[in-house]
Amino acid sequence: MKLHRMPFVVQKMLIDEMLLDDRMFLSFTSKRTCRLLGMSKLYAGRALSIKATLNTDLNSDGVEVRIENEDKWTFFIPYDKSDLENVVCWKIDGSDVRVSHEVKEIGTEIKKHTVSIVEGAGLKQTRKLLEPLGKLLRHLTSFLNFDSLHCICHTLPNGLISQLECSLNYTKIWIRREFWTLHGWDSEDRAAVVTPKELEVLLSKIKSRELKLNVKVASAVYKYRKHPESIGGGKIQKLILQSHTWVDFSDLPAARAISFPLKVQSREINTLLKSWVAGKNREMEILDFEIGEFTDRTRNFFFTGITQHETQLTVSDRERFLTYAFSFDLLSDVIAVDIIREGDGMRATVIEAMLWPPLENNWNRVPYSKRTMFVIVWSEKNLKKARGEYVDNWF
User: Fold this and answer.
1) CA-based nearest residue to 173, from 161, 191, 185, 162
2) DSSP symbol at 324
3) Helices in the chain by DSSP H: which ranges?
4) Which residue in 10, 108, 143, 275 has the fewest CB atoms around it within 10 Å?
5) Residue 212 lies in a domain
6) Residues near 300 by Cβ (< 8 Å), separated by ≥ 6?
7) Which SS3 state, helix, strand or coil, does residue 308 take?
8) Residue 54 to residue 84: CA distance in whole angstroms
9) Are 286 and 325 in contact (CB under 8 A)?
10) 192 near 153, Cβ under 8 Å?
11) Distance between CA atoms of 353 and 373, rounded to whole angstroms?
């Protein structure tokens, strides 16, 4: 008797007894069967990870999707055609997709499955190459549960961003670009080129606890405009911008916490603070960036056109909050003032300080120390954390 014709109670009992491999093979038989498996999702491991790689061996270039459950299942979408054997057709998200499936036995109990998706292989320069990625993500998450979902891009193939399923909650998405040299991988981060449409997807469509971007837009004059859907939304908890030539500091992307690891210009800082006082950038609750050389003149420029108030955040609350939210050994030469937002009277504390690195870098402290500015908005979550209270879903 076929599974979908059995009584519901019997279906659920049978599905509950199935292990990962059984469910995987059944899910690829039909979309109807896959929906049945979704009635009782299986916890499949700590993470479902997506990785875009660029290697010197052309046969191994591609996007990898791995179920981190003893690495039993790995899916690979190659950039170039490969001489793959045993090509079969599986139903992935209801579509026929050609795959090559290999099984390797590890010991007596563990089997490792490698599935190469050959649909679209050879279309390296087109977006059709990665169309199976979106189907695969929807398919796997329809009947499996994971603690987290990661996407790490060491290169950015054409069409990858558009295939990231927007209905999912990502734990982290990191996008950068690496280069291969005669001496190996270039360890320096390079900015990957994205289109304005791809930026809109990343910053206003996708839900992510941490989004780390080292990207640039081909147009030197382009500035990102916040999408209306993202205003008041909170799809991104922490946004790390390693390059920011495309950022409009008067209207930052919507995120609860924003970090700029590289130096921000004084005029950009002034624009940001004035826009917050005027009522913009309301989604931002925590901000940090490097400010470089610090003098009375530069400090005055930061606050041009802004009324400063004596801070009401106690030293102990301030230190407690910063210690929790940021990684450092100690702060020195601290200056703190408050600014107040027009309209609702919301207060924020602006802190300028010399930040020293964690103790593990003690042997070479001076080159790593930097002048940093923090902005802490007096939101309910931030005030609770400053007082040492428990805050659910902090980041």
Assistant:
1) 161
2) H
3) 8-17, 20-27, 31-37, 131-141, 196-200, 266-277, 296-302, 315-325, 365-368, 380-386
4) 108
5) no
6) none
7) coil
8) 20
9) yes
10) yes
11) 7
The pTM of the full predicted model, rounded to 2 decimals, is 0.87
Reading the block at residue 196, the tokens are 């304005």
Contacts of 43 (CB under 8 A, 6+ apart): 144, 145, 146
Which residue do the tokens 């400053």 mark?
A: 386
Domain count, the chain: 1
What span, in angstroms and rounded, lies between the C-alpha atoms of 232 and 254?
Answer: 8
**Does residue 207 sit within a domain?**
no
Tell me which residue range forms the domain holding 356: 282-395
CB 47 within 8 A of CB 87: no
Q: Are 112 and 50 in contact (CB under 8 A)?
A: no
Is 386 within the bounds of a domain?
A: yes
pLDDT digits (tens, 9 = 90+) for 120-173: 555 555 567 788 899 999 999 999 999 999 999 888 888 899 999 999 999 999
66: helix, strand or coil: strand
Question: How does pLDDT run across 309-337, given as a tens digit for each residue?
Answer: 999 999 999 988 988 888 776 778 889 99
Alpha carbon distances (Å) from 13 to 7, 231, 288: 10, 45, 52
Separation between Cα atoms, residue 178 and residue 96, nearest integer Å = 34
Amino acid present at 7? P
